Amino acid sequence: MYVKKKTTYIATGSAVLALLLSACGGGSGDKLEDVDYSLNGATAQPSASFATPFAASGTEAHIVEEGTGDEIVDGDTILVDATVFNGADGSSVGTTYADAPMVIPVTDQLKEAAPELYEILAGAKVGTTFSYTTNIDQASTSTAEATPTVSPGTATNVEVYTVTSKLLKSAEGVENEKKSSALEEFSVGDDGAPTLKLAEDRGDAPTELYTEDLITGEGAVLGENDTVYANYVGVTWSDGAVFDENFSTQPLSFSLNGVIEGWKEGLKGKTVGSRVLLQIPSELAYGEDAADSGAPEGALVFVVDILGSSPARTAEAASSAPAEPSDNPESTQSPEATASASE
Question: Of the residues 18, 67, 138, 228, which has the fewest C-beta atoms closer than 10 A?
Fold first, then answer.
C-alpha cells in the first residue's frame, strides 16, 4: 500500500479480533447469556458485568441485540466496533471506539475460518450486537498440529461487537462527463480488476493538484480527520504503469490526516459514493525521497472509490462504565480474543 495508511488495531496485543483468526467450534452462547451488557446506544464503548474469573470451556457466540438496519448478505463488507473485556478481572483491555471501526468482509473465506461468526453475520442486520468467547489458545495456534485450548478454568476474554454499517460495493451516485484530458479510460471488470489508462498525449506532469468527480456520491462529506474506506488504483504519470490497487482485494481503511498530501487535500470534502480522479504533482505525492523509501516516483494519478467513512472520534466515545465483576458466582465464563490476554 502506497498511501501511508495507518493500520487500525484493537489495543489488546495478541487479542486483535482473534475470532477471525481461529477456526470456531460450535457453541450455543449459553454462558454469554449470563453476562449483563450495557450498550450505551452503540455510540460509545459498551460495558459488561460478569462473575470472574470468566473461563470458557469452548467457543460461544451470542446475539445481544438484533439490529434494525440493512440486511447483511454474503459478499458484503461491514464495519464493526469491538470492545474486549479481560475475563480475569472484568476490565476493558481494548476497544475500537477510541479510533475507528474495523473492516470485516462477509465472504467464503470468513465462513471457512470462523463459521460461527459467519452464521451470526449473514442474514443479520446493521446495528446487531453480539458477544463472543473462546478457550482456543491463540498463542499456540500457529504452531500446533491440532487446535489448542487453554487449561480448564483459565480466564478468557469477553468480546462485544456491534455492526455499525455496510460499505458500498463500488462508487454510486451521479455519473459526470469526464473533463480531464489526461484520462483516457477507467473501468472495473467483472472480476473486480480496475483499468486506468492515461492518454498518450497527456503532456507534461502536473505541477498542481487536480481533482475531478467521475461519479458524485450522495453520502457523508469527508472531514479532515475522518477514517475513510476506499478502493483505489494508482499509476505513474511518466509511463502510465499501475503500481498499486485494491479493487480486486478488499477496501482499504485510512485516516485522512495520515496519507500523502495529494490524497488529504484531494479527498477532503468529497462525499461517500464518489469516484474521484486525483492527478498529483510529485511534491504532493512522495517527492524527492520516493526512490529511497521504495515508493513510486514523480507525479501520480489515482482513481478512488469512496465506499464509506467514520467521523473522527473523541476520547469520550471510548469511555464507558468499566466491566464489573458480578456478585453472582454462577455467572459463566466467556471467550476472549485470546485466552492468553487474560493471563
Answer: 67
For 18-167+315-342, the fitting CATH number among 3.20.20.140, 3.40.50.150, 3.10.50.40, 3.20.20.210 is 3.10.50.40
Report whether pLDDT(48) > 60.
yes
CA distance 272 to 172: 9
Asked if pLDDT for residue 328 goes beyond 70, the answer is no
The residues spanned by each domain of the chain are 18-167+315-342, 174-216+221-310
Q: Each residue of 138-189: pLDDT tens digit?
A: 665 555 555 667 788 889 999 999 999 999 999 999 999 999 999 999 999 9
> Which of 305-335 are b and which e, b meaning 16 or more Cβ less than 10 Å from the residue's Cβ?
bbbbbbeebeeebbebeebbbbeeeebbbbb
Q: Mean pLDDT of all residues in the chain?
A: 84
User: Residue 121: which pLDDT band, with cuts at 50, 70 and 90?
Assistant: very high
At 341 the pLDDT is 37
pLDDT at 5: 39
Distance CA 329, CA 325 (A): 9
Choosing among 3.60.15.10, 3.10.50.40, 3.40.50.1820, 3.90.226.10, the CATH entry for 174-216+221-310 is 3.10.50.40
Instruction: Please list, in sequence order, all residues whose beta carbon lies within 8 angstroms of the beta carbon of residue 233, skipping any fewer than 6 positions away.
Output: 194, 196, 242, 244, 245, 246, 247, 302, 303
Q: Which three cell numbers stand for residue 86?
A: 479481560
* Peptide bond before residue 53 is cis, with ω within 30 degrees of 0: yes
